[in-house]
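Researcher: Let's continue the batch. This sequence belongs to Zinc ribbon domain-containing protein, and it's 96 residues. Same format as the previous ones, please.
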Amino acid sequence: MPVYEFRCVDCSGFELILPIGTAPDVATCPSCQGDARRRITAPNVSRTGSSAFQLIDAANRSAHEPSVVGSAKPGVRTGTTQRYTSNPLHQKLPRP
Ligand SMILES: [Zn+2]
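Model: Same format as before. Here are the structure tokens for Zinc ribbon domain-containing protein:
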């Protein structure tokens, strides 16, 4: 649900979370019980800093500047076959 900002004449502003389309033009101030008018504010649709934006930025950067791998991944042994199953019947299957 969106956050609506209200500005009281006597005190500071406050925010209310209301369903879309149900925000009144005038609300009751929680501090002084006076009338507070709804403020028109910019919607918070920025993706900057979010994990989605970081993923998109990394994908775009790797298209032009792919990172160079200097060594094998740590913890991965090379030269030995890795067993994926412990079932002895799988040992009889043909190997590529
Ligand atoms: Zn007030």
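Researcher: Any comment?
Model: The first strand starts at residue 3 and ends at 8.
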